[in-house]
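User: Could you go from structure to sequence for me? I need the amino acid at each position, not a summary. Structure tokens:
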């Protein structure tokens, strides 16, 4: 098994995935700008700031992940060339920590936050609160969707790392 190719393919797949954060963020920013320009009602005006903030956060997340994974590809080659066993061990530690973060933050924390936002939405009827909760639910749903796909990729990558580690030990 060529674990360097596997690691590089995983990082390249992440480079394809992360622009979806940027795309979603850009859509939020466009909605914010559109509502700023043509929003007439209190509720429409209330969406301007929450969608601006959500869009900015999604763009920042996307750019951060994109550049992190882009530099990671070159670092993979260097680390693997220097010491393949240490490379696999370090990647296993990183992927297992990431999988734990996904479990705690993405698949536990985000649904809880969405539930809280739904509860607030049910009880509070002020336009700013409604707009903020609906925007938060939408943004968190986008994150949940994209990270759900990323979780599947990193889980598969982790399994391949475990297999490579077993092959090296033989």
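Assistant: Here is the amino acid at each position, in order:
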């Amino acid at each position: 098994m060529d674990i360097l190719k596997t690691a590089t393919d995983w990082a390249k797949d992440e480079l394809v995935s992360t622009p979806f954060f940027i795309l979603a963020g850009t859509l939020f920013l466009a909605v914010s700008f559109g509502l700023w320009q043509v929003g007439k009602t209190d509720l429409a005006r209330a969406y301007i700031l929450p969608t601006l903030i959500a869009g900015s956060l999604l763009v920042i997340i996307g750019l951060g992940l994109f550049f992190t994974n882009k530099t990671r590809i070159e670092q993979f080659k260097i680390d693997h060339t220097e010491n393949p066993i240490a490379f696999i061990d370090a990647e296993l530690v990183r992927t297992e920590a990431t999988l734990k973060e996904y479990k705690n933050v993405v698949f536990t924390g985000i649904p809880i936050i969405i539930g809280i936002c739904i509860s607030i939405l049910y009880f509070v009827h002020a336009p700013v609160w409604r707009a903020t909760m609906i925007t938060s639910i939408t943004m968190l749903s986008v994150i949940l969707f994209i990270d759900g796909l990323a979780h599947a990729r990193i889980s598969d990558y982790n399994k391949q790392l475990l297999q490579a580690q077993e092959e090296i030990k033989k």
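One structural detail worth keeping in mind: The mean pLDDT is 94.
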